[in-house]
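Researcher: Next entry in the queue.
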Amino acid sequence: KRLLNFQPQLKRLRLSSIDPAEVDDDLMDLLSNDKRLLPHIHLSLQSGDDLILKRMKRRHNRNDVINLCKELKASRSEFTFGADVIVGFPTETDKHFLNTLNLIKSCNFSNVHVFPYSPRDGTPASRMPQVDENVKKRRADFLRKESKKILINKLKEQIGKSTTILFESFKKSYTDGYFQVKVISPLNPKLHPKSGSLVSVNLISKQDNFLIAELA
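Model: Structure for this entry, 216 residues:
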């Protein structure tokens, strides 16, 4: 809030990863109503199961995340969500894992970073019953696969739309909703946008995890 007040000329501001418990009423109001804050939030989710979250000593639960996403979507329909997730935390069962998978699907997390749990010496979790390494790998692979399906569906929804991107390079830039974009380079070098400039584009297709765009 101070940044936006002190820098009125600032056109856009993107939040990095944030703990769901840190989204208080002030931040929710800003995210919902100040269009300079971009409509994507990346949550330090870690798990979608309440018991595992409790054992991780996280300050949020499953419903906190669901309600947060619902409220942001209701206020700004263009909002997209990302998450960091740990699979195979000690004592995690198939049921616990499915709760995480179902939460990601229900909230439509389109940018998911999946990490298999690895014990760290001296921590309480390292002394808890560990999940088999092969099970951790299978869960991580499956979660990545299912998360990519959500991303692909989200990318397909963007095709045919016009938007403004922060141009970084022709190989990779980002939409406000944090979708990666490859911009088709115009034949005339004089039309090439500068890195760091806001550019209007038409989203015409997709290629794997990228949207393909042409300058408007």
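Model: The chain has a mean pLDDT of 96.
Researcher: Noted, moving on.
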